[in-house]
Design a protein that fits this description.
With 113 residues, the chain is mainly α. The radius of gyration is 17 Å and the shape is elongated.
């Protein structure tokens, strides 16, 4: 099957999905806990940011064959590259989430409930 967009490989999950979740967390969690009741604005901002990121990455892969081959490369010869992309994506997700939690904790302490 020929994929126009990313195939579900380790590079896709690490390079796109985990980073996209990290971007969502770093925008949504601190924004929501700034006031602790404005859910809609935080959700819209974080969804728009993740959508722009995913569109940008997909567009980059369509325009650049090196990026397309890097993310869609299947087979034993690409396994180590795919694993490295996955690990980097998990690391970015973890860092973004930890930073967003720390920002949210500081902001929530200032909220008057």
């Amino acid at each position: 099957m020929d994929y126009l967009f990313f195939a579900p490989h380790m590079g896709f999950w690490g390079g796109v999905c985990f980073v996209m979740l990290g971007i969502f967390n770093i925008i949504f969690i601190p924004m929501f806990y700034k006031t602790a009741y404005k859910y809609g604005a935080a959700m819209i901002a974080s969804v728009v940011a993740t959508l722009l990121f995913s569109i940008g990455v997909q567009w980059l892969a369509i325009q650049n064959s090196f990026v397309y081959d890097m993310f869609n490369g299947a087979g034993a010869d690409h396994t180590m590259l795919q694993l490295m992309i996955l690990l980097v994506g998990i690391a970015i997700f973890a860092v973004f989430t930890i930073v967003s939690y720390n920002i949210a904790i500081k902001r929530f302490e200032k909220v008057d409930i």
